């Protein structure tokens, strides 16, 4: 292994568990301004002393400001490090970090506060090698898990030469180190149902049951699920809300569905599969989130070869189904590598 890589990775690893404990101790579900600000304060304390810090507007309204940290160098090339401090775990289910055998378990430990800790360590390591770059920037956002608004940071880093994202890492079936170079496009569809309320005992047939209409819509979405098809489309109903009383025909409601595919064009056929009306209740589908996919397999191959030589073992580019902010940068920064965080599991599970 390259001597500098060995020395710096040892130092990052030596500090990582304590730093992760401090970051995971802060409960920071998406949209919680106080939690995000506390996470940013922890990260700022762990950055190099001379890093220039800036709070910039978040892509999502009414969220805490995102963090940009910059190191100026004397060389060439600009590199963006990328992460997020928000989690999907609510305050009531938050778990501080604890050790379970050889695992560290806690809310957001792998998605993605573990990766954030590693990115902070990389910033400290690169602070001693100013001759090797013109600029290194770290962007930490606080809305990655639930964002439906357009991503607002692509133009800010236009012209950068590489983007390194620290979402959770991977391993090949043969046990080799993997990084993520391909991700599916991600879409969220919301289906609104408009029916008619009526007493479910004395006048049930005067109603137009929005719940039954949404159930039919959910079945239509599930019928489009084709993970082994040409677009590798997954279409999954995830949230259904309808009705507010046990003795009233539901007059309205909504269904939320998550979709992933190699191309976002595949989402349109899911939208078109929703019937216009069921049992007199009308259905109105619409996309509320659309994230691009990424495929940097070819562009990153030479970089991964050099990384493998420095590491002394293979580094394999791999696909992953989950979405990531790296996908937003991949179109303008072809040299985008994701999955540089720690390996783990149960990323969206409070347990």
What can you see in these coordinates?
- Helix content is 27%, strand content 29%.
- It is an alpha+beta fold.
- Strands 1-2-6-3-7-19 form a 6-stranded mixed sheet.
- Helix 1 (3-24) crosses helix 3.
- The protein is elongated, with a radius of gyration of 23 Å.
- It starts with a helix and ends in a 14-residue tail after the last strand.
- The model has no long low-confidence stretch (mean pLDDT 96).
In summary, what is this structure?
With 351 residues, this protein is of the alpha+beta class. The protein has seven helices and 19 strands. A hairpin with a 2-residue loop joins strand 15 and strand 16 (281-291).
Layout of helices and strands:
Elements (H helix, E strand, L loop, with lengths): L2 H22 L8 H14 L5 E5 L9 E7 L5 E7 L13 E3 L2 E3 L3 H18 L8 E7 L20 E4 L4 E2 L5 E7 L1 E10 L3 E2 L10 H14 L10 E9 L5 E2 L2 E10 L5 H6 L4 E2 L2 E11 L2 E2 L1 H15 L3 E6 L5 H5 L5 E2 L14
Parallel strand pairs: 3-6, 3-7, 7-19, 9-18
Antiparallel strand pairs: 1-2, 2-6, 4-5, 8-9, 9-17, 10-14, 10-16, 11-13, 12-14, 15-16
Strand content: 25-35%
In whole angstroms, the N-to-C terminal distance is: 37 Å
- Poorly predicted spans: none
Instruction: Give the H and E element order.
Output: HHEEEEEHEEEEEEHEEEHEEEHEHE
Key terms:
351 residues; alpha+beta; 6-stranded mixed β-sheet; 5-stranded antiparallel β-sheet; 7 helices; 19 strands
